[in-house]
Design a protein that fits this description.
By secondary structure, this protein is an alpha+beta fold. The chain contains 2 helices and 2 strands. A two-stranded antiparallel sheet has the order 1-2.
Length: about 80
C-alpha cells in the first residue's frame, strides 16, 4: 500500500484516480523524449533558472516566477 492512501471502496478509488488525472494528466512515455535534452548540462539549466528568478523572464519558455505573499510560485503559460 502507498503511505498516503487509505483503503477505499471502488467509488473512492475511481474518484482518486480522476483527481490524479486532473492534476497531473496522463503521461505517455512513447516519444516523450524525442526532442532530446533541453540543456547541454545541469549547470546550463541552473544558470537559466537563476536568470529567470533574477529577471522574472520565463524559464523553459513557459514558466514565469512570481512571488506572492512571500512565496515563490510558478505560473505556466502555454
Amino acid at each position: 500500500m502507498l503511505p498516503v492512501h487509505e483503503l477505499f471502496d471502488l467509488d473512492r478509488v475511481v474518484q482518486e484516480r480522476q483527481l490524479e488525472l486532473d492534476v497531473w494528466g496522463e503521461f505517455d512515455k512513447v516519444g516523450a523524449d524525442d526532442a532530446g535534452p533541453r540543456w547541454a548540462s545541469l549547470s546550463a539549466m541552473l544558470a537559466d533558472l537563476a536568470h529567470s528568478l533574477e529577471t522574472g523572464t520565463p524559464f523553459d519558455q513557459h514558466w514565469t516566477p512570481a512571488v506572492e505573499s512571500g512565496e515563490l510560485n510558478w505560473q505556466f503559460h502555454p
